[in-house]
Design a protein that fits this description.
Largest sheet: 8 strands, parallel, barrel
CATH superfamily: Aldolase class I
Shape: globular
CATH topology: TIM Barrel
CATH class: Alpha Beta
Distance between the termini: 40 Å
Radius of gyration: 19 Å
Strand content: 15-25%
CATH architecture: Alpha-Beta Barrel
Helix content: 25-40%
Strand order of the largest sheet: 3-4-7-8-9-10-12-13
Structural class: alpha/beta
Number of domains: 1
Number of helices: 10
Low-confidence stretches: 1-11
Length: 352
Amino acid sequence: MILGSPEFAMGTYESLLRPILFRMDAERAHHVGLWCIARDLIRARLVCDPRLQVRVAGIDFPNPIGLAAGFDKNGVALSHWRKLGFGFIEAGTLTPVAQPGNDKPRMFRRPEDKAILNRLGFNNEGVAAFRARALASKPGIPFGVNIGANKSTPTEAAHEDYAKAFSVVQDLGAYVAVNVSSPNTPGLRLLQGRQHLEDILAGMFTIRKDKPIFVKIAPDLDPGDLDEIVETCVQAGVAGIIATNTTIRREGLSQPFEGAGGLSGKPLQSLSDEVLARVSTHARGQLAIIGVGGIFEASDAIRKFRLGADLVQLYSGWVYGGPSTVPRMLLDLLRSMEVQGLGHVSDFRQAQ
């Protein structure tokens, strides 16, 4: 199905495709959608405009809207995301050794709240399989590689896992993201502590110093811990921070949800905004920032830019919005720029 205008595609997705997919188990629907994308069955209108092009951390992006890690974990559709309008994508999370993840069911939709809960647990085919697939792909847009530690690895040895994974993927893609913030691997969030994070980054920079590295952080950090992470990243020479991962909180859900897992979508919006604003203020321009969490419309992206984000990433917003989401957002960004008299998308950061 080749989609035309964003407006037509949105109506088609909402009336035909989404009802079919949403009748399936959430994880199965995810794999069906990914299968269709990887076989070039779904495309969207491309929006290309020099006013949308940005350079962040030395990387040139055709536009500032990316796909967050977790959707195309193993890079099976690396060559196709540009056909859906994305300016970049992030594959992973990938671990040194393939692992199945947590028991099913482990992904849940809450359409009434525009939310998704998952407790996948870094299910992936491992960095070696990803490397072979990436080398055979032609993404056409920058891509990042998100890495993590295996579930069986003790916390005190986790830095070795990051070094192993990094050594395999460090020559692939535009940047590498360090995931120390997923709530679905026991003990992983402890790695956001200063000593653990310093060890992880030191091991990676020993392997390669010139690779842009981003650290993906949790939205549930205390302000003091958040400030310490920013300071650690600046001192280590990290390129930027991805704010944020999913939350373990349950505020914003119309019905209770029992059990573990990370919450994304609309309920994450205000919490991720708060973290983004604090990171931007404390970093004082020394770190690039990718804003993630609760982005469904161009207005959400604009808010992230004004809070300090250089780039944004979608996950739940794309699941609920469908293939027209990115071109629709890009067109709306251009319209907003014209209304406000802005010459470039980066000007949203200064406009109030």
